[in-house]
Write a structure and sequence with these properties.
The chain is α/β, with parallel strands linked by helices. The chain has a single domain (3-120), classed as Response regulator (Rossmann fold, 3-Layer(aba) Sandwich), CATH 3.40.50. The chain has 5 helices and 5 strands, in the order E-H-E-H-E-H-E-H-E-H. The chain has a 5-stranded parallel β-sheet, with helices on both faces. Helix 3 (62-72) links the parallel strand 3 (50-54) and strand 4 (77-82). The two termini are 16 Å apart.
Length: 126
């Protein structure tokens, strides 16, 4: 099964993402802060294929989480999901190690297509 780690501090958005990923056939683990995302990643018995990270969170933000996850894994697909839509924000996110950058508000079908496309690319590269 394809495994996704979702880190989003807003309950409504996190729930929305989880429902749509599960409907698309993904196994989802969800957390609400960066520290919990790293803990979940480190403690996972089966590795995650994709991480979907919010950028603006209290404590450890999504950019920091992205960098830490990238240090742990070159093969993990990382998508940043954020309200920060400026070009400089996108560039910072991609420089931090993310594979893709989706701005809020977003279409659930677009997010699923991006997750699926990234999963295909990462699977083909292994």
């Amino acid at each position: 099964m394809k495994r996704v780690l979702v880190c989003e501090d807003e309950d409504v958005i996190r729930g929305f993402v989880i429902i749509n990923l599960r409907r698309a056939g993904y196994e989802v683990t969800d957390v609400s802060c960066g520290e919990d995302a790293l803990r979940a990643f480190d403690e996972a018995e089966t590795p995650y294929d994709i991480a979907v990270l919010d950028i603006m969170m209290p404590g450890m933000d999504g950019i920091e989480v992205c960098k830490a996850l990238r240090e742990r894994s070159d093969s993990l697909g990382i998508i940043l999901l954020t309200a920060k839509a400026q070009a400089a924000d996108r560039e910072e996110g991609l420089r931090s190690g993310a594979d893709d950058y989706v701005t809020k508000p977003f279409s659930p079908s677009e997010l699923i297509k991006r997750v699926s496309a990234l999963h295909r690319r990462k699977s083909a590269a292994q």
